[in-house]
Design brief:
There is one protein chain. The protein is of the alpha+beta class. It folds into 2 domains: 11-58 and 108-207, Alpha-Beta Complex (Replication Fork Single-Stranded DNA Binding Protein), CATH 3.90.198; 212-271, no CATH class. The chain has 11 helices and 8 strands. The protein has helices spanning 5-14, 17-20, 68-72, 78-93, 96-105, 135-147, 194-199, 204-207, 213-224, 238-242, 248-270; strands at residues 28-29, 34-40, 52-60, 63-66, 108-117, 126-130, 162-168, 174-181. Strands 1, 2, 3, 4, 5, 6, 7 and 8 form an 8-stranded mixed β-sheet that branches. β7 (162-168) and β8 form a beta hairpin.
């Protein structure tokens, strides 16, 4: 067999934010095609809101980055800055190429839900990544309908399960085709096991890690200058910035160099 399975797996992993951004993959659940019965579990770190909203920059030089601007209210990160410049130019010129670049670079929302899959309770709580536009709204409506009947579907003793049917949708991606609520209340697990299961959840802030701004700049530079000569090390590499062996002066100089390159690339895009 000529094609290498390991390399295929590596390529898939690079597209997966739970791996390319340091996510703990054992804490992530992916639902295969077909029907699954799940329970949204109480999230002990935020009992009032188990749904955790995370913002990512996807596909920047083949990598995924948490957006510190959206997540922490930090000053605009270099990728957000570039996206904003693209949008500003689109509004001035009505050139769709700027709009497409903005859509590609702007931070995008993903929602993570702590769930227990029926039949796999021994694996504890895992995070299910869902679309904010469709699945998230659908599930929120199920939660709201239950709350209006004074039922908390996440209640560990008398909550409600959801039945999720996964099917191939746009681009053959697996997406929830249908979600229904099991109207009969049930416990999360056997009474003696509930505390252990609730404690099993990995905090969402441990799933992904923020990337140093300098490394984000380097990735952005690589993304908008894909044909740059790798031997030109004046801007360094992402790997270089993860090393602690460089002096602060050198890192600052490299950050300035990368910023200049990004500015040059944007000017080139304008032209």
């Amino acid at each position: 067999m000529a094609i290498n399975l390991d390399k295929i797996n590596e390529a898939i992993d690079r597209l997966d934010p739970t791996k390319s951004n340091g996510g703990n993959n054992k804490s992530i659940i992916k639902l295969d095609e077909g029907e699954h019965q799940i329970r949204i579990a109480p999230y002990k770190h935020d009992l009032e809101m188990p749904f955790q909203e995370l913002w990512f920059h996807f596909g920047v030089a083949g990598r995924t980055f948490l957006c510190p601007t959206k997540m922490k209210g930090d000053p605009p990160d270099p990728i957000c800055e570039f996206a904003t410049k693209c949008w500003d130019q689109f509004t001035k010129t009505n050139d769709d190429s700027f709009k497409e670049m903005f859509k590609q670079m702007a931070a995008k929302l993903r929602v993570y839900v702590p769930v227990v899959k029926r039949g796999e309770e021994d694996q504890g709580i895992r995070w299910w990544s869902i679309s904010p536009r469709t699945t998230y709204k659908d599930i929120l409506n199920h939660v709201r309908s239950a709350l209006r009947q004074n039922v908390d579907i996440t209640d560990a003793s008398e909550g409600l399960d959801l039945v999720v049917t996964m099917a191939h949708g746009f681009n053959n991606w697996l997406v929830p085709e249908n979600i229904t609520t099991v109207l009969k209340p049930s416990p999360l697990a056997a009474k003696k096991d509930i505390p252990t299961i609730i404690d099993s959840v990995t905090p969402v802030n441990e799933l992904f890690q923020f990337t140093p701004v300098a490394e984000m700049k380097l990735a952005l530079d690589k993304h908008i200058n894909p044909n740059a000569d790798d031997s030109d090390s004046s801007a360094g590499t992402a790997k270089d910035f993860s090393s602690n062996t460089k002096s602060n002066t050198k890192v600052e100089a490299e950050e300035d160099n990368v910023s200049e390159k990004i500015g040059e690339a944007f000017d080139k895009l304008l032209r």
